[in-house]
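User: Here's a chain of 373 residues. Predict its fold as tokens.
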Amino acid sequence: MKYAPFEIERFFRQHEFSAPYGISSSDCEPLTLDELLSYASPQRRQQFETMWLGYTEAQGHPELRARIAAMHTGIDAGHVTEVVPEEGIFLTLNALLEAGDHVVAIAPSFQSLWEIARAKGCRLSFWQQRQTENGWQFDIDKLEALLRPDTKMLIVNFPHNPSGCLPSRADFERIVELARARDIILFSDEIYRFSEHEPGLRLPSACELYERAIVLGGLSKCFGLPGLRVGWLITRDGGLAHEIQELKSYTTICGGGPSEILALIGLENWRVLTQRTVDIVRENIAACREFFGRYDGLFWARYPRAGTITLVELRAEMAVDDFAAAAIQEQGLMVLPASVMKFEGNFFRLGLGRRGLPHALEPLDQVIREHLL
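Assistant: Prediction complete.
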């Protein structure tokens, strides 16, 4: 089995740590260790400073799993497996899919959400987003038409990367019911859940609604803690969980002890951390509305109700790939074109979660003036 190059990760390897500016990051402003420890209780601080640096429990720290479960309705610690976030995708798709299985995947999406299935020899159908005047949408009727009697797995991601699309609760519940009616495994990437700009927008987790759902979550995005490399898989289906945990013995085996305690500190203060994200995103949306509003007709942008990213269309003769190349070469500004995400059209990803975004709009302005005006 051979995997195709992971285009978005290759792009970030080339530019993320060398370009002085960026407007396409998918995470929120990361905390420093001092900032995170400032939220720790005296007991947690002592636990972190005096911990034993041995192997940890394969399923994850019991307190950590209990804390994750408590953020969901009807879930207990036994339903939770700690993983590195990307590992959760790798484990789920490799453990549960075989060559010839039919899989429906949301598109565009993080490449591993469908590439692993492709590499295993699965038959893929893509549920494509569509551009509307009000923003990005996914047509549930089109999803229903893609599902077949032999469909093994449906893979979704809401809030959506890269468009920021968040369906209504009624639409999300219909997606779940489509899977349930056909006994399809529903893999729900919910890495941006808890970043809704208003709490009332939060969808139920798929694992709360459907016993055959597998949910991916983690601290990498809206919690501002990507460096901890802590994520989780949740499922109420013991058979699915067993298959995933067996395969984990061939990957990370267990989590890192220091990261687990730091993750506990973060999750004990998750409302504060996610509100921090929302505040940053709101400020950046205001700055981007003002910035792109200067160039009437040159850009099309709709801003998300959840998450930290959206897609912006460049409405010019210049190809967005050429625009992005000019930005990095002339201004040291990293702009992620849609082609890297395997998505057609003259779009680039706009990351709204970093505090430095308004400053990065200055070199973007220079590129616009040099090449588009």
